[in-house]
Amino acid sequence: MTNIQSKTGRNQWFLVVATCVSTLGGFLFGYDNIVISGAIGYLAKAFNLNAAGIGWAAGCALVGCLIGSAGAGWMADRFGLKKSLMFCAACFAGSSAGILSVDTLNQFVAWRMLGGVGIGTASILAPMYIAEIAPTLMRGRLVTLYQLGIVLGILAAVFVNMLIQQTGTDAWNQAVGWKWMFFAGVVPAVLFALAIIAALESPRWLMKTGRFDEGTQVLTRINGAVIAGAESVSIRESLVEEEGRLGELFTPGFGRALMIGVVLAGLTQTSGITPVFSYLPSIFEAAGTQKGDAFFQSVLVSGINLVFTLVALWLVDKLGRRSLLLIGTSTQMLAFAAVGALYYQVGYPIGILIGVMAFVAAHAIGNGVVCWVIISEIFPTKVRGRAMSIATTSLWVFAFLGNLVFPVMQKGLGNHGTFWVFAFMALVNILFVYFIVPETKGFSLEAIEKIFRNKPGVPSGPDDRRQETT
């Protein structure tokens, strides 16, 4: 294929491939994480599960996510991002294919945990990869494309679920149909692997392993020679200052960055986004919607998620990270307070649909996009992988707990109480962002590092806020 050379000397083909890798990683994250929403009702009947069993079946993949996210940083530092992302592709493909032949709940759990390892690893490596390779002033938008991939994966999952659910009878779906919902994930996993083969390695990983010439060549292909020269110098200087020890994250400056990453990642989940998507059809059925209509409404919600992720893609490098977080999380709080009130009144399925759509739209423009951008930006280069592992593990802990306890919360608190708890946790998120989280829009990764080191002169220098032509 002919490479596309821009006027600035950038080779845009390599940036396109890198973006495809990140976006497909997000797509597989979204598909594999949410495909359970359509399968869980049939799976529960097939294995005769109670409320706790349903929570375990829906959440077991998230145990794999914890394992994957905990090891992703070490894997990236040891083997590089390309090889580590290929490992993710193998996990996705193996899990999707393996579930087609399961006969017991334990077999299902084993394959789902393998897929979860892929999700957890990709949740760190895919945004990290595009953040380390993207030009500074495009970084927010390109990392947002990772979130767009997640949203497209979610939409694909609920759409495939709906098509398969309509293909046969309830008996067929209970016996076979739900397995095909998972198997469809093999196709994007193969495409993901092909994109990785064509991609460049992260220049920052190459340089932190001492391969400075190779790293500079990658920067030149992505940015052009002039910008690559300045970027290379900036990276070298930051690497000299960094110790590369995990303990560096617990120093006063980077301790604050680690705290922001861990808490922000956890708070994205405590307002309920993962259980909402994992149980989406059953949420609408509990409001009085028929099963077929509930699957269709799930597609509508996922479509809204896509539309507002595109809005966030446009706004994240214009309005800024912090503003989007505050707007989005405030709307999430109001939406779920209203959903709880409608469940309490009983008999308002359309109102509940609108409330859930508003919540998902708000998550898309706030936490859904901005959390991944921020945790891919705020850590020093030498320990970015391990630091993102720690932060993202927090996300998966709360996602797992959300899926596990959601059916129990519904039973104990009622639907109205469950959604009021989520609304309260959104309020906690608002307060944390308002008082703690800084704005990082427009800064290079090395300039953000200086901010957390409390170095003078930021953002006055040319390397701190680059005026690139994008």
Annotation keywords:
Growth Hormone, Chain: A; 470 residues; disordered N terminus; single chain; 79% helix; globular
Characterise this structure.
- The protein has 470 residues and is mainly alpha-helical.
- The chain has a single domain, classed as MFS general substrate transporter like domains (Growth Hormone, Chain: A, Up-down Bundle), CATH 1.20.1250.20.
- Helices cover 79% and strands 0% of the residues.
- The chain contains 20 helices and no strands.
- It has helices spanning 12-34, 36-47, 51-79, 81-99, 105-133, 139-167, 170-183, 186-198, 203-208, 212-223, 225-241, 252-270, 273-278, 280-286, 291-315, 321-345, 349-365, 367-375, 384-436, 445-452.
- α3 (51-79) runs antiparallel to α4 (81-99), α3 (51-79) runs parallel beside α5 (105-133) and α6 packs antiparallel against α7 (170-183).
- The longest helix is centred in the last third of the chain and has 53 residues, at 384-436.
- It is globular, with a radius of gyration of 22 Å.
Summarize the structure.
The chain is 79% helix and 0% strand. With 470 residues, it is mostly helical.
How is the CATH topology named? Answer: Growth Hormone, Chain: A
Query: By CATH's scheme, which homologous superfamily applies?
Result: MFS general substrate transporter like domains
Oligomer: single chain
Number of helices: 20
CATH class: Mainly Alpha
Strand tally is: 0
Provide the helix percentage. over 70%
User: First CA to last CA: what distance?
Assistant: 23 Å
Strand content: under 5%
Shape: globular
Kindly name the structural category.
mainly alpha
Main beta-sheet strand count, sense and barrel state? none
Domains, number: 1
> What is the string of SSEs from the N terminus onward?
HHHHHHHHHHHHHHHHHHHH
The overall average pLDDT, rounded, is 81
CATH architecture: Up-down Bundle
Radius of gyration based on Cα positions: 22 Å
Low-confidence stretches: 1-8, 455-470
